[in-house]
Amino acid sequence: MRLSSYFNIMIIIGIFGWPGMTRLIRGQFLSLRGQDFVIAAVMIGAPTWRIIFLHILPNVVGPVVVAATLGLAGAILTESSLSFLGLGVQQPTPSWGQTLTTALQLPILENLPWRWLPSAVAIAFAVLSMNFFGDALRDAFDPRMTLD
Length: 148
Description:
The chain is mostly helical. It has one domain. 78% of the residues lie in helices and 0% in strands. It has helices at 2-33, 36-43, 48-84, 96-103, 106-111, 117-141. Helix 2 runs antiparallel to helix 3 (48-84), helix 3 (48-84) packs parallel to helix 4 (96-103) and helix 3 (48-84) runs antiparallel to helix 6. The longest helix is centred in the middle third of the chain and has 37 residues, at 48-84. The radius of gyration is 22 Å and the shape is elongated.
C-alpha cells in the first residue's frame, strides 16, 4: 500500500511536469537548428541522424540537466505541499508535508511550538541545495562562460 501511494504521486508529478521539459528541448533544438555549425553540416551532406546526435544533442544536454535539477526541487515542493494538504501519501508513510501537518495541530503548537521546524528546515535545505546545484551545473555547462 505504501509503495503504491508513492508511485501514484510520482506518476502525477511526472504527468504534469513533462510538458515544460519537452518545450525546453524543442526550443533548444529549434534554436540550434539555425546555428552556423548545423547549417554547415547540412551543406556538406551529413545525414540527419549524424547532425542530431553529434552536433545538436551534445549542446542540448547542459540545459536539460540543469532543468532536471530544478524540476527535482519543484517535485520535492509539490510532494510536500500535497502531503501537507492531505492529498499526498497517506498516514503511516513518512513525508515532510505530513510531519508539518501533525506539528501544526493546536495541542502540539501550545506545548512544543518548535516541532514544525525540522521538517520545514529539511524541505528548505533540500530545495535550496537542488537549486544551487542546478545553478552550478548551469555555470559548468555554459560554453559562453569564460574564465578571466
